[in-house]
Every structure is written in C-alpha cells, then in structure tokens.
Amino acid sequence: MESVALLERESDVDPWTCAAGVGPRPLGRPEDADVDMPIGDHMALALSGRVLPAEDRRVLGAFAAQAAVVLDRQRLVGEAEGARKLAEGNRIRTALLAAVSHDLRTPLAAIKAAVSSLRSDDVAWSQADVAELLASIEEGADRLDHLVGNLLDMSRLQTGTVTPLLRETDLDEVVPMALVGVPAESVGLDIPESLPMVAVDRGLLERAVANIVENAVKYSPGSTPVSVAASALGDRVELRVADRGPGVPDDGKERIFEPFQRYGDAPRGAGVGLGLAVARGFVETMGGTLTAEDTPGGGMTMVLTLKAAPGHPPAGPGFPAQVTS
Question: First-to-last CA distance in the chain?
Fold first, then answer.
C-alpha cells in the first residue's frame, strides 16, 4: 500500500477530515480509496495502492477497529489533561484572589495608616515617632515589592516564558548578593572560593537563593542564624540552607514547593506561599534540583544542587575543588 488515512466526520453531510495518516499523499475521502474500511457510522480507513483480497480485508478490519480505539484513548487523555490544567488554573486564580484580599492589603493598610498619621495636624510627632512611622512605611513597601515580585515570577513560570541565560558563574559572587535584604546577624555564610564554577542564570539563581534564605529566616528562632554553606562533590555543587525551625514531616516536604502552600502556623509576614515554588521553578529551569531534608538536631535544610560548568575539574569526596590557573 502507498498511503493510509484515518478519516472521520461529524455527520453524513459534513466533510471528511483526516485524524491521522501516513504515506506521501493520504486520501481525503473514502470514495477515492482503493480500499475503504468503514469504522462505525462516521469513521473510515482509506488506503491507496492496490485492491486487497477478502482475507486481508478481515485483518484490516481488526486493525481499523484498534486504530479507532487508540484515537479515542488519545483524545480522552488530552481532555483529562486539559481539565487538570483548567482546575489547576482555577485553583491558582482562587488562591491569588485570596492573597490579594489579605496578604497584599495588609501592608497597604499599614502604609496608609502611617501616612495618614504623618499628615495629621492634630498630633505633634517626635523625631522617634516619625522615624518609627517611616520605618513602618518602608517595611510595608518592601513586603509589597516582594509579594508582587513572587506573583510575577510564578506567572512567568506557569506560562513557560522563563528563558535562562546560562553562563559560568562563581557561587561566591551570586549568593552574597541574594542576602542583601536579610539581616547580617541572621545568616552564617560559608562559600569556599575554591568551588568549581556553575553554569547558571545569575538573576534567576539570585532570586531563588533569596527566596530560600528568607523562608528559612522566617521559620528559624531569632537567636539561631541560618546556615548557608556550599560544597562540591563529583560534577555537582551543592548549596545547603539549614535552619533550626520546627521542620516539616516527610509527607509534607513536597507540598511546601507547591504554589500558595504554607505549612503549619506560618509566622507573621510569611507571604502568600510562593517563595519556594518560585525558587524550585527557577532552579529546575537552569537544570538543577531543589529538595528539602531534615536538619540534624532539628529544623529543615534546603538542598540546591547545580552541575559544575564544563571544563572545571570535579572535586573528590570530602575534598574541596582544586583551583586551576
């Protein structure tokens, strides 16, 4: 046979359409076929090349029936996937509305109250009071900026518009920049200069690390700094962010990476639950992984794993990477 086409139509008066075909010129109508094998009322298998004997037509009939079953199965899978995406989109929109109604309005209300107080002529504010009100405005603006940034990042990830610009980068150049908005006393940093370079998008990595560290600081006791340490093993570089907070049970370690998820009693200012989802999305876009594990002695550790850049010597177990000139 030269070609075969699986044809279908909605009714007896509608034109035929080709659902699947193979060969240089699949036919568009059963009437033009050398072999026409009907499948039900509105589907047919049309073949060109030669006329088949009766025995071959019986085999072809069984094949045609199987082809129709496969086509129906593919369409059902597609419809189920479409329904899943629609449900996920509806869930995201519902959660977004909840976030806008609470987490975004809270800092707006604080900013509005502070500005109204400063503009009031009924009270003579001291310099300390003015400084406190201005600090409240700045804190509220920072929270808004962070929340809106995460919402925009998640929107980019959901629509698949994140395109990383990968280039060889030293972790000790990116990680400190990610900690600019975090109080220095709340983080202990250990990034050896001897680590091999990694192929990453510096902006995406900085954003991911910032979200991971900020999340760890929120859940860690104030007197215990969060540990941010990097090491190399084989062709990988690991960045581990460990806190001494309440931790997360094993059955919840994957859920914390889903959008709009906050485990347990979230502290004040914990945001809308997008930080870790955005961080994992950015890391995976760059070919890395982000997982959660228990911190020995209590707490949770985020493990960000990246591949070493090509051409940089891997490190052996327990030894730092060697620097080459």
Answer: 65
